[in-house]
Amino acid sequence: MSLSPRAGLRLCCLALLLVLAACGGEPGTKKTEDRTQGWSVEKLYTEARKALLDGGYQEAIDLYGKLEARYPYGVYSQQSLIDIAYAYYKNGDAELAIESADRFVRLYPLHPNVEYAYYLKGLVHFKREVSILEKWLPQNLAARDMSNARLAFDDFAQLLRAFPDSRYAADARQRMVYLRNQLAEHDILVARYYMKRGAYVAAAARARHVVETYPRSAFTPDALELMVSAYRALGLDTQASDALRVLNLNYPDHPATQRAGKLARAD
Fold this sequence. Notes:
Layout: H1 5-23, H2 41-53, H3 57-70, H4 75-90, H5 94-107, H6 114-136, H7 147-162, H8 169-196, H9 200-213, H10 220-233, H11 237-250, H12 255-266
Helix pairs in contact: 2-3, 2-4, 3-4, 4-5, 4-6, 5-6, 6-7, 7-8, 8-9, 8-10, 9-10, 10-11, 10-12, 11-12
């Protein structure tokens, strides 16, 4: 009995499907073996650490993830959590880095490396702040979001409060100086914006915030000068005189003191 061409084609297709099913997959697919299958926790950690030190951050993330999944308890699991936070940071995964650091602090608040978790969070926010600043340089800095700068400042401050003698303390303090000036400068720009538009109450409040929150910043004299100007515009001569007195006492040779003095004499 002969088959029609159409029937023959159907039989060929059926035979092909049976062969593929027997091979256990679809055309073009291969079963991949997990090379880490059967690895001990020590082996997983050693290979993950090696990848991390060699700059293979994604490979390190994958290996640390497998370690945590297979061996969720013990010293290797604890260390892998802080290591993977660093790997995320270096890999550009800021949110995952912060999430891992927060989880480490929550699970192991007494661990010797908890101070590094605070420091790492500060680094993540600091890196974001610097990246955003570079994008905003040609534009109006007063309008940009300062949330990452504030978060980084708070993270480093928390580290210094809890671990004043930490090996990360010196670097954290230096970064806080930079951040303090960035935050103060931003508030000064905003205060000047308010002054130009006659919003003297808002200008005085923002300038006072700089003096009270960032007293050692490079922009404290400018803040006091703005307070003198805003208070005089509001007819609050006592407050203006107080601000000028603080300027004269602490910054006698600063240009802001000279400008505020001229304003007072003009009035």
